[in-house]
Amino acid sequence: MSKDKKESVIESSIKRKYKLQANDVKVWYDDFMAIKGISMDIKPNKVTAFIGPSGCGKSTFLRLFNRMNDYVDGFKMEGEINIDGSNINDKDINVELLRKQVGMVFQKPNPFPKSIFENVAYGLKIQGLKDKAFLEERVESSLKQVALWDEVKDDLNKSALALSGGQQQRLCIARTLAVEPSIILMDEPTSALDPISTAKIEELIYKLKDKYTIVIVTHNMQQASRISDNTAFFYLGELIEYDKTNKIFTNPEKEQTENYITGRFG
Amino acid sequence: MRKLKELVIERGLLLSALITIAVTVGIVLVLSIEAINFFSEVSIIDFITDPEWTPLFSDKHFGILPLLSGTLLTSFIAIAFAVPVGLSISIYLSEYAPKSFRRTIKPLLELLAAVPTVVYGFFALMVVTPFLQSFIPGMSSFNSLSAGLVMGIMIIPYISSLSEDALHAVPNSLREAAYGMGSTRLQNSFKVMVPAASSGIIVSIILAISRAIGETMIVAIAAGQQPRLTFDPTVPVETITAYIVQVSLGDVQHDSLEYKTIFAAGITLFVFTFLLNTISYRIRKKFQEKYE
Amino acid sequence: MNNIRKNRLKDQAFKIWGIFCTLLGLVLLAVFIGNILVDGIMRIDWEFVMNLPSRKPEKAGIYTALMGSIWVLLLTTLIALPVGIAAAIYLEEYSKKNRLSTILEVNISNLAGVPSIIYGLLGLEVFVRILEMGASVLAGSFTLALLILPIVIVSTREALKAVPKSIRDASFAMGASKWQTVYHQLLPASFGGILTGIILALSRAVGETAPLIVIGALAYVPFAPSSPMDEFSVLPIQIFNWITRPQHGFVENAAAAIIILLLITFVMNGIAVYFRNKWQKKFK
């Protein structure tokens, strides 16, 4: 095997091993440095949880993976974010296509003020897909994946705003699934929901990781320990510790991590 | 392909926004070019100092002072009426009135500003002047008093609405602090709320002045068409705006000196309102920063 | 003790004064509308609406002026709407904070404060003379369109601003482009608010007199306009003309025409308030 070929094999095996990679990422908002040089690798088909006190940069960091910070005034970034080995901040990367591959679910359920059907079909429609049978099929399968189909199948034309908070959040997940991303980013997806809805979403996340790579920001440490495979602890714009969830919650390396998960600050 | 489409759309939207700049440039150019033509025939010193304005007579005088005094007189009357009333309304609505009353009364008050000004002109000429004449026997049927008062009614909502917004924006903690010290609503209103909301209130008054100076139809109908340098509110006067209307209605040759006078009058008006608007914009920006 | 009672009395006195002031403007408006109704309501009939202008007050009608107003209103809408909404979308959704956006902002705020008669002078020079439209419906519509442009822009921006940021986030996160987000989400969501602003702007346009007088719109037009290049009059100019005539019959006509103009204005304002209330509920 030639040297070049060997390297490319190694490279592609890294690609398979790591879905998302960050290399020495720094972020500023005007003069404020929000992320102070973070590198990390995220494995495919796993749930990775970001934890840390408010303002530690975990949400900012999450939003780098689908470039949602682009529209923020004063945002500036250094370093590299790779998905499947390619840099998503390259000039020839189409940010719209990137976001089809990297779905996002937000803190507060944010359905569009349209019908349930229109919400789920939106991502497909803006790609120019018009075939009705196809759209219907995809809407149905997406709603089934989030276990919402039985609850809403007769009300597809009703406003999504009429659903309960938990249903709205599952709808938002279905909306994301409909465009078949490979990665789903979740920014505290259950913080606005009641315990029962939260349980349903957690169950769903557990189920979804077979098909998707999931990164979830959460304030709720029990949640992180219940559903994630790996956990990263952020503090003041730095990645303090990143390891198997089990390890982080039972035997953390760093004192700061231990203080946080035992509730001594944060 | 899609990127191109997005770019074309963005440029189109930007172009629409730039039209607003073109409008301003257009106004400034049109007014100054015609005014420069005017001042090549009439000395600017005469324009500022001559106490007579008679461009339509055979003995022509081009002193803007009579028109300016007419404008200032009617505006002064309007403001003198509208400021105390409008401010009282805003304080009453924000500090005294029950919420439901406020919600119903505000749109009704704003209706005052929605009535076409030609309608107010009719009101001033046909209702207010005859009413005032029964108190002031020597009053002419065209006068600045009734035009000014009716203009005052029209600008009440400008003052009351904007001032009320400003009072409303004062943090509730300040209000509670004042009540906690045992002050009455009146003391709280004038010693705490009004000073705290002062910049918003000043902005509302400046905008009202600017509105009064530029108002046309009420004064054209009710104040008369006799330019004269006076501060007597019972006699006919002519404002800058009314003069422009008077010339526009008549048969004036384009390119004649008479025609150019309306642009000279117009630029005078524009300069005044522009200054007032700029001042109010500055204050508003500063004020916004204060609470953000 | 005495001092406290005095303060309470003053407080009560101001409350009564406040109520008096609040009602003053409204009572005056009511008195005035009552007066107009007495003067003019008997004059309104089908013939008054359908008759052409005339030297004899009892034969004169508002048909040409009413048609002129409708023409001007339609054309003004056609011109001001796309430009105003597009400019607002640019300022609210596209422009970054820089010198240009500051200049645009200051400029629009200034334009909103320019007296309407100045727009008349602009229209006279640019549309009537340089572009040789004459004192036509089109020239009048362009003039009024520029006049209401700042109002349309400001109210459209307010409406866009009221759409929660989460809707934008959701749409962008789905891979929608800026324009797709604006077109599919923001415009439908802010429709009610935009509509409110536009109706209010148009109700302002329908009552405007001075700028149209300045561009040379006529008080006496024998026929209703049939094309954008025709001469025209509008309702407020007709009213102004009748007010300035000495015969009493014309005063009656003016009052009758005012009733119709006020009706149009108030109905438009009513519709606007209705849409605003309905729309505000949507995001609460």
Task: State the distance separating the first and last CA atoms of chain B.
Answer: 42 Å
Question: What about the largest sheet of chain C?
Answer: none
Give the overall form of chain B: globular
Architecture of the largest domain in chain B in CATH?
Answer: Orthogonal Bundle
Helix content of chain B: over 70%
**Mean pLDDT over the full residue set of chain C:** 91
Distance between the termini of chain C: 47 Å
| Structural class based on helices, strands and sheet pairing of chain B | mainly alpha
**The number of domains of chain B:** 2
Low-pLDDT windows of residues of chain B: none
Overall geometry of chain C comes to: globular
Largest interface chains and counts: B-C, 86 and 87 residues
Provide a quick synopsis of the model.
The complex is a heterotrimer of chains A (266), B (292) and C (284). Chain B is built from twelve helices and no strands.
Could you characterize the architecture of this molecule?
- The complex is a heterotrimer of chains A (266), B (292) and C (284).
- Chain A is of the alpha/beta class.
- Helices cover 38% and strands 24% of the residues of chain A.
- Chain A has a six-stranded mixed β-sheet with strand order 6-7-8-3-9-10. In chain A, strands 2-1-4-5 form a four-stranded antiparallel β-sheet, with no helix packed on it.
- In chain A, helix 4 (116-125) packs parallel to helix 7, helix 5 (132-145) packs across helix 7 (165-177) and helix 7 (165-177) packs parallel to helix 8 (195-208).
- The longest helix of chain A has 15 residues, at 3-17.
- Chain B has two domains: 2-41; 65-287, Orthogonal Bundle (MetI-like fold).
- Chain B is 77% helix and 0% strand.
- Chain B is globular and about 70 Å long.
- Chain B has 292 residues and is mainly alpha-helical.
- In chain B, helix 9 packs antiparallel against helix 12.
- Chain B is built from twelve helices and no strands.
- Chain C folds into two domains: 2-43; 47-282, MetI-like (MetI-like fold, Orthogonal Bundle).
- Chain C has eleven helices and no strands.
- Chain C has helices at residues 2-40, 46-50, 63-94, 99-112, 116-130, 137-161, 165-173, 178-207, 210-215, 235-243, 248-282.
- Chains in contact: A-C, B-C.
- The interface between A and C is medium-sized, with 27 and 20 residues.
